[in-house]
Amino acid sequence: MIPGWLSLDGKRAVITGAGSETGIGFACARALLELGAEVAIMATGDHIHQRVRELSGLGVVHGYVCDLTDEQETCETFQVAADECGGLDILINNAGMASVMTPVGAESGSLGDINLADFNRSLSRNLMTVVHATRAALPYMQAAEWGRIISISSVTGPLMAMRGESAYAAAKAAIVGLTRSLAVDYASNGITANALAPGWIHTGSQTEHEYLEGQLTPMGRSATPSEVATVAAFLATPGSSYLTGQCIAIDGGNTVAEERTR
Fold first, then answer.
1. Active site includes 186?
2. Of 64, 140, 168, 186, which residue is the catalytic one?
3. Can you give the residue range of the structural domain that contains 95?
4. Residues 202-220: pLDDT tens digits?
């Protein structure tokens, strides 16, 4: 039996960016379902329905195709999800990084080199998707006077930087600032807001370079998506009620280790 401080029985969650079976969003959906939540997962393509079929044995799960860079489409999709679930209590903002339709590196570059249109597209994909989804979810949480907002940021931006990723770093740092603002503004409504800052994660989209960088962390490996999802799931539980406005690094100690040669 799941203890009450961990149980999500009766809670309704939306998880964005859950289209990849090897990704953090899909792992978060699995974790929340195992704790008893009813889960709605979203992605930009029809493959989300395959993810629903893969998760259906764990509990009640719904899938929606949604372009979260479009504010109106986001609001409409969240309304459909909330109507189908009977409300909305938990939001995990995982959508971001590169779209499956965007060539690798198309939105990368130092600030002096990147095309401004590409910079803005990266902000739209990595920051405004969080803004749109959170704005769509807040009225349901306010009505219930209970809510959990968990946004997936990155160590890149808030804590570290990678060469040639100016737009991505700016967006991910902004997510942390937004999270702290939400924590202050909505604490009186029983809503908490926290951010996670993953380091190197072994997903299906991890490059060889990223894999090798993961080998240089104190833990000697990249994290699994489920290791990020476990922390996200705790932040969604009743037991996390006094934890808000925080950015938690999940990076195997990489941001605190000064040495890389031993």
1. no
2. 168
3. 12-250
4. 999 999 999 999 999 999 9
